[in-house]
């Protein structure tokens, strides 16, 4: 943190009081983090957040105003004592005081540098401790089921030992400073007494007055150094939190002119020379992709791990910005519209489903836009409720299935549902939303083949007019799609109808299907109509 920032922060505390200032700073920093980048919460561990917005802010609230005020008080006291003793002792004491002042400064400098480094290490080593606490509490059921309690206990104790090490040495350096300042204190008092003895003109009352002040100089200097170093350590906490306030923000939520409320009306997708890099200095993940998806077309995207499938999906929502090229949806460049307008008009069904805590109704209909009948219909379409079931109207059917009662509670992260059920709930949300462009990233990876087949029928019926881009590893999931796109190292190597690709025995898609076995290959050909 530069000097200007430190002065402004100190002035903020002096003018408004430490508690109020810290709340203002806390609010500004939280706003910067929450609206800077949605992916921030996906890339920063919970331990680092708890550490910086918990422990660091606690230190700023309680320590910084006190250290600043006491540093000023002890500094003025030490200055007054030095001037008083120098006035009595004269030139010999001034010369000796200058020599001892140099020694004081060097000792203080060593202490300050070491304490700051120990404080940084203490803060850094505390983050893994918070992370393992949160992970263990969140996954306590799984940990106990696999008998891994002792492993997590050992990991926790190892993190505690690592965290205690810099804290121990931080206090060790503090005791080191006290020992040396006590020795210097004896030298100062002895020197003042020696000067007084050698100067007969100094009266006994003046000598006692000077010795009294000389004995307090070391106390003032010791606590001045401690408090000033504590002030610098508090600045370390501000420095760590300030990093989060300078995160690069995402593009604007709204950009004028905004697209029409009907956009996208058709769901036509065009990708032109698309290049994606996660950082300017890194090589591209996607290399100049060019393809076009017609309105209502169903496209399956295949490829090995690291081929760029998920990056392509993220680019449609501008979680990663194009380095070159553009993506057009109904002839509208998605980089020319706001993020809210873009993301509210598209739907993604992720591989790792996100479920909000609350009720089943609030999970499926977050903004309260749909009738209960529409919600039940969406649950039927994803086969969470049998097709013949009616809505939960009487007491005999309310508790028969959790999905028949829209007021059923949903725990944080949907922990009371299986991964497959959470994916089906995400698909039910997509059916309710009925957007023209839907991206599915391994949406049926956690369901069985029978359910996958039923969901495939639902997709063909419920999203008949929607353009669908499906990332899948199961070939049966996308074998009956209109076209198949095969990615390899960020490039499109094949993009055609599945039946045509299967007829070409030299194609990579045919090799993928053949690797599943003869019986499965025959079934895939039958499903594709090859």
TrEMBL record:
Membrane topology: Multi-pass membrane protein
Residue span, ABC transmembrane type-1 domain: 18-233
Annotated TM spans: 72-105, 181-202, 208-225
GO cellular component: fungal-type vacuole membrane
Chief location of this protein within or outside the cell: membrane
Alphabetized UniProt keyword annotations: ATP-binding, Membrane, Nucleotide-binding, Repeat, Signal, Transmembrane, Transmembrane helix, Transport
GO molecular function, one term: ATP hydrolysis activity
Gene3D superfamilies with a match to the protein in the record: ABC transporter type 1, transmembrane domain (1.20.1560.10), P-loop containing nucleotide triphosphate hydrolases (3.40.50.300)
Compartment(s): Membrane
Coiled coil: none
Keyword Transmembrane: yes
Residue span, ABC transporter domain: 269-514
Pfam name, any one: ABC_membrane
S-adenosyl-L-methionine in keyword set: no
Signal peptide as annotated in the record: 1-21
Full protein name: Uncharacterized protein
